[in-house]
Design goal:
The chain is an alpha+beta fold and 342 residues long. It has 2 domains: 9-214, H-NOX domain (Alpha-Beta Complex), CATH 3.90.1520; 234-340, Homeodomain-like (Arc Repressor Mutant, subunit A), CATH 1.10.10. The chain has helices at 12-26, 49-63, 68-73, 85-89, 94-108, 137-156, 177-182, 220-227, 235-246, 254-260, 265-274, 279-295, 301-307, 313-324, 328-340; strands spanning 9-11, 46-48, 113-119, 122-128, 164-166, 186-187, 193-198. Strand 3 and strand 4 (122-128) form a beta hairpin. Helix 1 packs parallel to helix 2. The N and C termini lie far apart (52 Å). 35% of the residues are buried. Keywords: DNA-binding, Transcription, Transcription regulation.
Length: 342
């Protein structure tokens, strides 16, 4: 029996941070990227890891600055953690923050493995992430190490110096440039990403105030979304998420989703048939699910219909009623609008 291929997903938040940094510091615009700008408004959405890695390589090419990811991690402050600011920064001590950050990484990307090794007086934070495009590996390693260093700096100050950082890739930039950005020795071509620091530093208590504008509580919907990232081999859930992702590029097609999963359309179709479901069924479920999520906003039903790939509201209404037994307007008025007033 053929081994099932794995498809890795990441949160759109990471792409948004990369693009915002590239536009702010290198003068790039949204037209320089192959990502619909309105997708970046939905940081909780999932996108294929391959698309994020392509973005990492593209930004390096456009900026002609191979150290841009290292600079990003040391300039973004708390914004680097996006919706997780409150979760991390409200930790009473660094040890708690590290545990929470490990959970955050697993909520941001599938296929991540993290552990903490203690060797005498040295703590070694290690993260292993899957890589599909070899050229992107070093940038993924830098982002992981840099985000962890930023957490250490959050508790110990911006001038904090870890013992060493191990990066999974070839040296980048001018001689000593990355070392200067991270303020510590760098070990290149490591089999995985590691940050070494003194064990005693783990007990550091929180001694800073949270910047109010950056601290927002999770909604129940957001918390559930972060917990429900599909496993790399869970083909049904992955296709479901990728059809929702493809809505930002147009109506979902078998060819689009199969390409994002790195397989031929007929192969994907057969694997879905083996599980007694068709691609069309998944598309209908994902479209209706996306529409329901948008119903809690102030968008008109016409706008929602267009957002989920329908040219007119009537066609969308027929498809929605076939799935739920009521029209989108009835569903919104009965189940969505009353809950907003609770």
């Amino acid at each position: 029996m053929a081994k099932l291929s794995a498809t890795y997903l990441v949160r759109v938040h990471i792409a948004k941070v990369l693009i915002d940094h590239a536009m702010k510091h290198y003068g790039l615009t949204h037209s320089d990227f192959n990502i619909p700008p309105h997708l970046l408004d939905y940081q909780l959405k999932l996108m294929p890891l391959r698309d994020l890695e392509s973005l990492l390589c593209k930004i390096e090419h456009l900026t002609q600055d191979p150290t841009y990811t290292a600079k990003l991690t040391q300039s973004a402050s708390l914004k680097l953690f996006g919706p997780f600011v409150q979760l991390l920064a409200s930790s009473t001590n660094l040890g708690m923050a590290i545990k929470r950050m490990n959970t955050v990484h697993n909520a941001l990307q599938s296929g991540v493995q993290i552990n903490m090794l203690l060797s005498g007086s040295i703590a070694k934070w290690r993260i292993l992430t899957p890589t599909l495009i070899p050229q992107a590996r070093i940038h993924e390693s830098i982002l992981a190490a840099g985000s962890f260093l930023r957490l250490l700096q959050l508790f110990h100050g911006d001038d904090y110096q870890p013992i060493a950082i191990h990066l999974a890739g070839r040296p980048l930039g001018a001689l000593g440039e990355i070392e200067a950005i991270f303020n510590c020795p760098i070990v290149w071509n490591s089999p995985n990403t590691q940050v070494w620091f003194p064990v005693k530093d783990i007990t550091c208590p929180r001694q800073f105030n949270l910047p109010t504008p950056q601290v927002k509580a999770f909604t129940v919907e957001q918390a559930m979304s972060y917990m429900l990232i599909p496993l790399p081999q869970d083909i049904l859930k992955i296709v479901f998420e990728l059809t929702k992702y493809s809505l930002f590029f147009g109506y979902p097609t078998l060819e689009f989703v199969a390409e994002k999963m790195g397989m031929r359309p007929l192969t994907l179709q057969r694997r879905l048939q083996d599980q007694s479901i068709s691609f069309t069924d998944i598309v209908h479920h994902s479209i209706c699910d996306e529409a329901i999520a948008l119903m809690s906003s102030d968008l008109s039903m016409q706008h929602i219909a267009q957002r989920v790939g329908y040219k007119n509201t009537a066609s969308f209404s027929v498809a929605f009623k076939r799935m739920y037994g009521v029209t989108p307007i009835q569903y919104r008025n009965t189940l969505i609008t009353p809950n907003k007033n609770i």
